[in-house]
Design brief:
Layout (H helix, E strand, L loop, with lengths): L3 E6 L2 E6 L9 H14 L1 E4 L6 H9 L23 E2 L13 H8 L15 E10 L7 E5 H6 L3 H7 L3 E4 L1 H7 L6 H5 L4 E4 L1 E4 L4 E4 L5 E4 L4 H15 L5 E4 L6 E5 L3 E5 L10 E8 L10 H6 L5 H4 L4
Parallel strand pairs: 2-3
Antiparallel strand pairs: 1-2, 3-13, 4-15, 5-13, 5-15, 6-12, 6-14, 7-8, 7-11, 9-10
Bound molecules: N-oxalylglycine (OGA) and manganese (II) ion (MN).
Amino acid sequence: MSLVAKPILPNFGAEMSGVDLMAPLAAATVREILNAQDRYGVTVWRGTGLDDEGHVAFSRLFGYLEGGSKTNVGPRRLKHAELIDVGNLDIDGNIVSNELTRAQKRGDRLWHTDGSFIAKRSAYSLLMAHEVPTEGGETWFADTRTAYDDLPRPMKDRLEGLVAQHSYWWSRKQAGFPISEEELDAKPVARHPLVHVHKGSGRKALYIASHARDIEGLPRKEGRALLAELIAHATQPRYVFKVRWNPGDLVCWDNLCSMHRGGEFDDERQRRDMRRTTVREGPAPDVPDDPYAEMFKTSEFAFMAAGRK
Ligand code: OGA
Ligand code: MN
């Protein structure tokens, strides 16, 4: 059988079948998978059977993996440095009880793209479910290419050349993390164009996220209003779908043409074990580096490194 992509929305998201990700993949099949990824932006693979090793190996087909430089921070639950622990479990496998860690994780429930707070952008994220809540905990996806296409011409003209400043702490503040605007001003930001051409498809896309705090050259109030307007536009029901998870499911999304957010669930009582790899945009660097680890190494993340309870 060969690869089958069943679209979820007409131009966005596809349920994949016909290829066993546990078996060795021919180069032509890998090409087909990457083409489908470029076309649909989000691919959903049910019941893959992949373990951590297989998850990381499959992810490598997409490019350079963040975390691979082994400069990771603090004690970890997961053996592979390339796997980000995005569920709600601590290093002992119990539900996180630290309020700050919980608030930090709740930031993922806001619409975002992974790693936009880092200068070197992340292209793909590959998220696998290992344990899921009995209720809630879906993941939502929004199509930032079609949303861009549908903007009125004057808005497209207005966005041309604008650069947004992204800060990890801005999304965490919005999720309830205790941090002031003044403290935020002292944190590093990453600068990215608001609109870019998505290389894999040649289509233009919005590059927006709840990490985006300000737009350069615009008064703060105006920049934030514009960011809020664009996020509201791109997350209208016609651009959005949600994935309900079962253990073994894998979802691959392209951060450069989509946004996503985690759905609500009872994170104080229900276990959710989700593991993610993240693929850097473009070719591998000459010397392996790990800007995520660099960032999370700083002292303000001590509460995470100190056991993540
Ligand atoms: C992520 C993320 C949301 C979720 O892994 O980057 O935002 O539903 N996840 O776990
Ligand atoms: Mn995310």
